[in-house]
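Summary for the lay section of the report: proteins are chains of building blocks that fold into shapes. Here we show the chain for FAD-binding oxidoreductase and then a coded description of the shape we predicted for it.
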Amino acid sequence: MAERFRSFGLATPPAPRAIQADDAIALLKAGQAGETSLLAYGNGRSYGDSCQNQAGAVVDMRSLNRIRGFDAMTGVLEADAGALLSDIIAHAAPHGFFPAVVPGTQFVTLGGAIANDVHGKNHHRRGTFGCHVESFTLLRSDAKTYRCSATDNPRLFAATIGGMGLTGLILSASIRLMRVPSLDIVEKATPFRDLGEFFDLAEAADQANEYAVAWIDQLAGGRRSGRGLLFTGNHAEHGSHTAARAGGNLSVPFQPPFNVLNRSFLTVFNAAYRWKKGRATVPRQSGYQGFFFPLDGVRDWNRLYGPNGLFQHQSVVPEEAARIVVPELLAAARRAGQGSFLTVLKRFGGVRSPALLSFPRPGYTLTLDFPNRGAATLALLGELDRITIAAGGAVNPYKDARMAASTFAASFPDWPRLEALRDPAFMSDFWARTAGSIDLRRRGAEAAE
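The coded shape description reads as follows.
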């Protein structure tokens, strides 16, 4: 049973124990949840170990999946924490509403989207998912249920959004959707020769479009280094109001014994992708799933990385440093001989999240996926961390499975404020590895004084 409860990156051990949501709720309401014994587990789309708890059990939230209500006038929807984003889209679409922020997969739970304060292709306009959370109910190990909003229990509200499930068990939430003319997207692809040309295009693209994201040919070097495609999109004035069936017909039915996404494959794939997508320089209308969730069309695609899984590295660096730092990050990966299947570059805007800890901040964010090749890959990821932190940037914790405590502390200096509000019954492998290590060192230093 526990084998089902893995991270999406498949590079970390599965949860040793899992319990159902109803059982965890009973424990919490009775005040019988032990220290570090619980952690909510949504639909397993986190890449690292923020969804794992070797010290106790993960709580399977997927049975709590009801949509409780929807106001078609205001766009406010209330649902259980285990409801999937795909179900929310399907419920609201006929009324002309769509989530204001969606990540790269629709198979995330509502609770997971809040706990990770996820972002999408329109951060420059809408900020993070947490910007659109009206309220939620939170059950803690003191046996109390808290209603949290910007005005009710505001400290718990801020700590839970982006709090990676450490403040208690989110039971349900109300979110504010945005009205759209249709679900369809009018998409345009703009090729760019190098990163300098991308940066020249990026701000204007954000100002003119709801959505903007760039794909980078990470393997291209020399004069072709940094080439890619800038995709922009807006909801079509006339199009579908019916959600498509979630998921595609394709799947990876078993775990290959080796990494299929090797350098030779990626070289061919990048060339083909750039040729195919680069032809769509004239705006064209298409379904929302292909624009927002292209990888959802292949079930269990993460298996293609082989039995050792993958590591994802997502960084953000200040805007003034990006023209130097982003090329450095890509060059470091090329020097290490590591190919990234998914290389995405986006511009974050200045919309502030209500979260105490939130990864997005003004600047540029680069996402890279690497097959897990052991020590060589870990060394590269450490170098990417070093470059990012030296530039005043941050590394995304809910995409991480190995960052050092010092990297986390430099990325999120306010982490002690979350630790102060962490429910003692809740723990994750990520928090134990990073904040737990920092805390232990601090206690040792204080004892020595």
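Put simply, here is one thing we learned. The chain has 14 helices and 20 strands.
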